[in-house]
Structures are given as structure tokens and as C-alpha cells.
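Running this now, will post back.
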Amino acid sequence: MESQTETTGRQPVQNVRRDHALKLITAVVQRGKADPPVQAALHAGAPGATIVFGRGQGVRERLGVLGLAIQPEKEVIFIVVEEQLLDRVLTAMVRAGDLDQHGVGFVYVTPVERTVGLLQIAEPAESRDEPRGRLSFLRRRGA
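Update: finished.
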């Protein structure tokens, strides 16, 4: 078997972390409803979160006025946590966002096989001196 350097002419990626103890929590919520679950996750020990905007369509949306399709906007939350934090972070997110209620959103967990560039945070979320509020976790320290 040829090495990556021989077949592509590029050096292999350095600092690849193969870690089966990491999990990806993905939550899909109504637009404007991502802040409570994200804040709860950060308070429960999650190192950070990524939110992207999306558009969903399903059975509920097809049952709109006169049977026309409604295409609601969604927010998708991605959080990578170590396995020992999974239950605490997931429970906090579900409670804060009422994700156990039908029609509010849903959440699922997948294993993370490899990461590149994932930073380890030494201090727990409770001790951070960052402002709270909508997407405050995206602000740079000292900014």
C-alpha cells in the first residue's frame, strides 16, 4: 500500500486525533430557539458549539394552509463532547430547549472517529468570564 505522500504528493495531515471517546451532539430546533440549549450545554461543561441555519420540510409542513408546503427555517446545533460529559450535556440541552416535546426539535448523538484542530479546554464552562447571550460564545476573548 502506498503512503499518502507517494500517491498525492502531499504530506500526511499532522496532529490527527483518533479518539473514540468523543461524541457529536446534533440538535435541530426552530429558528431563534438555539440559545437556551446551547447555553445549558456550555454551563454543563461543553467546550463550545456551532450553530448553522437550515430549512426543513416534513409531514407537519405539508399540512399548512390549503395543503401548501411551509418551509420553516431551523437552527442546527453541533457540539463535540468527551463521552463522560455526554449524559450531563445532553440532559441539560433537552431540558433547556424542551426537546422532549413533540414538534419542538430533535437531538441525536453520533460517534466521532477523528478530529483535526479540536482544542482542549482546560477550564470548565462555569468559570469562564465570558458574556452570555445569543451567540456570545463566538466572541473573541478580550474583544
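The mean pLDDT is 76. More later if anyone needs it.
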